[in-house]
Amino acid sequence: MIVEKRLDLIMDALLREKKVSNKYLKDLLKTSDSTLRRDLDLLEDAGKIKRVHGGAILDIRADERSFYDNEKTKLREKKLIGKKAASFIKDKSLVYIDAGSTTSELIDFIEARQIRIVTNGLMHINKLVAKGLDTIILGGKLKAKTMATTGLVAMNELENFSFDLAFVGANGYDDDYFYTADINEALIKRKVIELSDKAFVLADRSKAHNFYHAKICRSDEAILIGEDE
């Protein structure tokens, strides 16, 4: 098996499991100890993984999956979260919906009438149009990987709004903070939370204790909605 294929298989396993043993990888790749060590060294040098005793873990601070990869994962959990989130939306509300695959699911469950949606998520457009929802798209710099607009233009446009509710996504959270992988997206999320009467973070339990350097807000500044909340 060529090295590129082995590296892809290792990363796929880590994206699923977060941590894998050397024995598991040897069985998966059908390779020797020395070859596995070289493969893991390559991935660690590239900042993709961290070596730990007996195996490897995903370096989550270096990893950010695209929207199109994320929308295929944990779909059941995201639908549960989306349904719970949509139940908070009342008629005639001004609602912010953040870019992201989990926030996208709540759109399907919106039943409130005469609401207006503001979003920086270009992936939401088709769903919002199909439901006939009054929608404002924030301008700004497009981040192709997450299909989100960010930057100074988006920040300035947000100053025109005072939201009843905001629903934002996160890459990780712990007892103290909610986190994301990109400081520019973190700034948008933080500003939205400041401008909202009530803010929710939508995140399934796999995001728990995932640390990233970009803080969104303190854990007491927004309400977590997970599949078990």
From TrEMBL:
UniProt KW Transcription keyword: yes
Domain (HTH deoR-type) ranges: 3-58
Protein name (record): Transcriptional regulator, DeoR family
SMART domains: DeoRC, HTH_DEOR
GO MF terms held by the record: DNA binding; DNA-binding transcription factor activity
Organism: Anaerococcus tetradius ATCC 35098
UniProt keyword list: DNA-binding, Transcription, Transcription regulation
Gene3D superfamilies membership: 3.40.50.1360
Pfam families attached to this UniProt entry: DeoRC, HTH_DeoR
